[in-house]
């Protein structure tokens, strides 16, 4: 189907619906017609086969809201005197009937010169280019460089390294820019030239009936450039596999399983295109003393029963030295004492650090000498005499 025939074709009529039909109405109409006209249901019936193709073509446009909108706008442009009576192309003037004069050259409006040409600037070709292949003219678009692929690797840090931040070297082998041609793919002293077939776009367009298709240019293999004298070290790709050492700064407060992104440190792009990114997955080993809850550090502080009863001050470790923690008299076993600002450094603009959460836990002696045992028995008697009952009110007691 030519572009002229496409504009004059009424897809709504093909499906038997009005121009204001909803998407559900269009879908139902197409399903019924497709079922009735399908070649399997009409073997040897060429008319039904042609009708089936027309119905399918109409549905392909009207079932897509974006294509339908552009189809409607295009038809309105050529109907009802659109354009204010101005002459288009080779003398075509839209009239009330919306027809075409014999000398109308639709190629002037579409701005195309053959099946692989570029669309003109701002013409109807831009509109129908979006409808047919969503991309406009292939020769007019700028070539998109082939960005390199992203690369992933892993590293394991100690708990305190992860909390405080650390710089680690990562040794890895991956595709990198060729050091001889600096990634261009061309022999030193020469340069790639723009592909004359696709004008550097890397894609060419071709028309098939009413629809246009874009495909990679065969001459340049989609790169948009041609290398006449390729670099011998990388065979014109601009890429070499090499082993390199990357210094990675792990920020303070990184958590187990978190990924660190290093822009541009991934696989090299083809022929000087931008490199991909490197993603480093951080694994954090457990610590013998500290735990972590978000930005808060946690630790369990062993204390004696007498320290809880009488109160004391205990020196505890932090990420940057030790700090004294006061245990008030009468502190219950399992109580959490908070030391503000001595936790994990917070990430982001807020800054600061979390807290240190100290859980006190009674350490029970496994063996006592006779003096300690006698003293403990006297205390037990005195405790009862004072009226203290640890299970008062417990379990209905």
TrEMBL record:
Its main location: cytoplasm. Zn(2+) 1 binds at residues 178, 181, 231, 234. The keyword Chaperone applies. Zn(2+) 2 binds at residues 195, 198, 217, 220. GO terms for molecular function: ATP binding; heat shock protein binding; unfolded protein binding; zinc ion binding. CXXCXGXG motif repeats lie at residues 178-185, 195-202, 217-224, 231-238. Keywords: Chaperone, Cytoplasm, DNA replication, Metal-binding, Repeat, Stress response, Zinc, Zinc-finger. The keyword rRNA-binding does not apply. Residues 10-75 form the J domain. Its cofactor is Zn(2+). GO terms for biological process: DNA replication; protein refolding; response to heat. Binds 2 Zn(2+) ions per monomer. Gene3D superfamilies: DnaJ domain (1.10.287.110), Heat shock protein DnaJ, cysteine-rich domain (2.10.230.10), Urease metallochaperone UreE, N-terminal domain (2.60.260.20). GO terms for cellular component: cytoplasm. Residues 35-59 are annotated as: Disordered. A zinc finger (CR-type) spans 165-243. Participates actively in the response to hyperosmotic and heat shock by preventing the aggregation of stress-denatured proteins and by disaggregating proteins, also in an autonomous, DnaK-independent fashion. Unfolded proteins bind initially to DnaJ; upon interaction with the DnaJ-bound protein, DnaK hydrolyzes its bound ATP, resulting in the formation of a stable complex. GrpE releases ADP from DnaK; ATP binding to DnaK triggers the release of the substrate protein, thus completing the reaction cycle. Homodimer. The J domain is necessary and sufficient to stimulate DnaK ATPase activity. Zinc center 1 plays an important role in the autonomous, DnaK-independent chaperone activity of DnaJ. Zinc center 2 is essential for interaction with DnaK and for DnaJ activity. Belongs to the DnaJ family. NCBIfam families: DnaJ_bact, PRK10767.1, PRK14279.1. PANTHER family: CHAPERONE PROTEIN DNAJ 1, DNAJ HOMOLOG 1, MITOCHONDRIAL-RELATED. This is Chaperone protein DnaJ. It comes from Nocardia fluminea. The gene is dnaJ.
